Amino acid sequence: MSQNVQITTALPSNNVTRDQLIESIESIVPRSAFTDNSTLGVDSQKIIAKPIIPRWTKISKTYTDFATAGTTSTINLFTVAAGTIIHSVKVKHSATFTGGGVTAATLSVGISGSLTKYVNAHNVFQATGDTVQAIGPTAPTAEDHANTVTIQGTLITTTANTNALTSGTVDTWILYSQAI
Predict the structure, then answer these.
(1) Residue 64 vs residues 60, 154, 173: alpha-carbon distances, Å
(2) Which of 71, 87, 95, 176 is the residue whose CA sits 20 to 30 A from 59?
(3) What is the DSSP code string of 48-88?
């Protein structure tokens, strides 16, 4: 998953110095860290921030993505490259997970073998709101240095199966970087 993130900005001229590029990026992405020339490049007047710079990705899922004939449903959300560090995970639902006799619903985010590694049982049955969200972990976490890792979401319902749900939408944001 080694992708470059391209940020386009107006540059002073065709003869741009590395310091001018850093200033341009820092004006768009504050607190960016450039430790060497492998973190930054220019291609046709586009600044290319390479994978070691932390970046957010957003994954949106609805109740139908979790529909199974059971009260627990684990799905793949996002696969990270070898050497990835997870800095933070944010879970926020925009529609409650309700319907079909379900009386409670929680969403956890983790990996196989540790399904609550990043976010533990966030209540997605409760009413939505601007501050109704979960954020974890408390410190950056290094994943497998040699292999890709799949970040998973686990929905657990009470009283009825996940395929009984009639509504629910959740967004998961993952802040990650690659150490390799």
Answers:
(1) 12, 13, 19
(2) 71
(3) EE-TTS-EEEEEEEEGGGG--SSSEEEEEEEEE-TTEEEEE
Token code pair at residue 48: 């290319």
Q: pLDDT averaged over the chain?
A: 84
The residue type found at 30 is P
DSSP assignment letter at 159 = S
Which residue ranges form the domains of the chain, and what is each CATH number?
A: 5-49 (no CATH), 55-178 (2.60.120)
How far apart CA 143 and CA 152 sit, in angstroms, is 13
Q: Is 106 helix (H, G, I), strand (E, B) or coil?
A: strand
Q: Exposed (0-12), middle (13-18) or buried (19+): which is 49, by Cβ within 10 Å? A: buried
Give yes or no for residue 36 having a pLDDT over 50: no
Cα–Cα dist 180/58, whole Å: 22
Q: How many Å apart are CA 66 and CA 43, to the nearest integer?
A: 41
Rg (CA), the chain: 19
